[in-house]
From TrEMBL:
It comes from Paenibacillus glycanilyticus. The keyword Protease applies. The lineage of its organism: Bacteria, Bacillati, Bacillota, Bacilli, Bacillales. Belongs to the peptidase M29 family. Signal peptide: none annotated. The gene is ampS_1. Its cofactor is Mg(2+); Co(2+); Zn(2+). One of its GO terms (molecular function) is aminopeptidase activity. Keywords: Aminopeptidase, Hydrolase, Metal-binding, Metalloprotease, Protease. It comes from the Bacteria. Pfam families: Peptidase_M29. This is Aminopeptidase.
């Protein structure tokens, strides 16, 4: 007997999120071997006339693979998987595992090769730009531990978040998308943060369950050379298997000219991956009503109610500021009072204070109106 919550989630992913059509090839990418949801997804894709294809992988195996891989091997690996991705109309990525730091000791040169030669062409260029895709985490005891919750309580939280009424959220995002699309100057103020930039003519994109589950953000991007000031993030972030805390960036004319954290050396190595890694590719405002605290999982953390993220690296095609990089690192600043508060201004008008939208047309995105 299938868990009814898993069946509902699989139906939402295949139906609402990627809208599987008859004849669609759909790659179901299971990282961490969470097989029950995979079985539900196969059934739901097939019900809609799609053709499911399944990839099973494990982070500990990937760690060993990358540690011993050569440049030529990664290039051939990418060529093979890119050919497969080019034949897909849909992609559902289910990510789980028992250790978020599994890749932390992969040699940095091997991680750089993997990101540049594999992840960038297969996922950032092909999957993101040319398929209907959605990515989600699956609840595990390690995720519950990161969230400081029991496994059972975390599963209840997870299904509240992931089976939210995203169609309702989508409608509530329209006014914010419209406002961001006509905004020029943005100012962000929080403890350790005073940042200005322009989003003029970049546009804005709604995120309401069609790309990520959980979801709940509207994103844009700064004009590439317009960012000035300082931002200090108050949410930890895992990147390439390392957990970073207290990240702070200083910008001059768009470029990160100073970067510090609990591991400043490794932080700057990431930012030195290529020229675009020191420029920002995304600015987004998060508002999922069920996600309140960071849990070292970016698919959740970037949607935290009352948060924003300001992302070094590659810009998305939908809100393209021209920045190109093998990096796309969503870093989160929470502005609710218990995290120090803060304000967002659009063209000198306060739009959100201490995590709460204050403009009447945006109040539909406050937590009490989305649950």
């Amino acid at each position: 007997m299938r868990d009814a919550r898993l069946q509902k989630l699989a139906a939402n992913l295949a139906g609402y999120s990627i809208d599987v059509q008859p004849g669609d090839n759909v790659l179901i990418d299971l990282i961490g071997l969470e097989l029950e949801l995979g079985k539900c997804l196969i059934e739901e894709v097939t019900k809609r006339g799609g053709r499911p294809f399944v990839e099973l992988s494990d982070r500990s195996v990937l760690r060993t693979m990358l540690t011993h891989a050569t440049k030529e091997q990664i290039e051939l690996w990418a060529k093979h998987d890119l050919e497969r991705m080019e034949q897909m109309q849909g992609y559902i990525g289910v990510r789980s595992g028992s250790n978020v730091n599994e890749l932390s000791d992969v040699p940095k040169e091997k991680m750089r090769l993997y990101e540049q030669l594999y992840t960038h062409p297969v996922h950032m260029e092909e999957r993101v730009k040319r398929t209907k895709w959605v990515v989600l985490r699956y609840p595990t005891p390690s995720m519950a531990q990161l969230a400081n919750m029991s496994t059972e309580a975390f599963e209840d939280f997870y299904f509240d978040v992931c089976n939210l009424d995203y169609a309702k959220m989508d409608r509530a995002q329209d006014p914010l998308q419209a406002l961001m699309s006509r905004t020029d100057k943005v100012r962000i103020v929080s403890p350790g943060t005073d940042l200005t930039f322009s989003i003029k003519d970049i546009g804005a994109k709604k995120c309401s369950g069609q790309r990520n589950i959980p979801d709940g953000e509207v994103f844009s991007a700064p004009v590439r050379d317009s960012v000035n000031g300082v931002i200090t993030y108050n949410s930890p972030s895992v990147y390439s298997g390392t957990t970073f805390q207290n990240i702070s960036f200083t910008f001059e004319n768009g470029k990160i000219v100073n970067a510090t954290s609990n591991d400043t050396k490794k932080l700057n190595e990431i930012l030195d991956s290529d020229e675009g890694a020191r420029y920002i590719g995304e600015f987004a405002i998060g508002f999922n009503p069920y996600i309140l605290h960071p849990m070292n999982d970016i698919l959740f953390d970037e949607k935290i109610a009352g948060s924003l993220h300001f992302t070094p690296g590659q810009a998305y095609e939908e809100t393209d500021n021209g920045n190109r990089s093998s990096i796309h690192w969503d870093l989160v600043l929470i502005q609710r009072p218990e995290y120090g508060g803060g304000e967002i201004y659009f063209d000198d008008v306060l739009i959100r204070k201490d995590g709460v939208f204050v403009l009447p047309e945006l109040e539909g995105l406050n937590s009490e109106n989305l649950k």
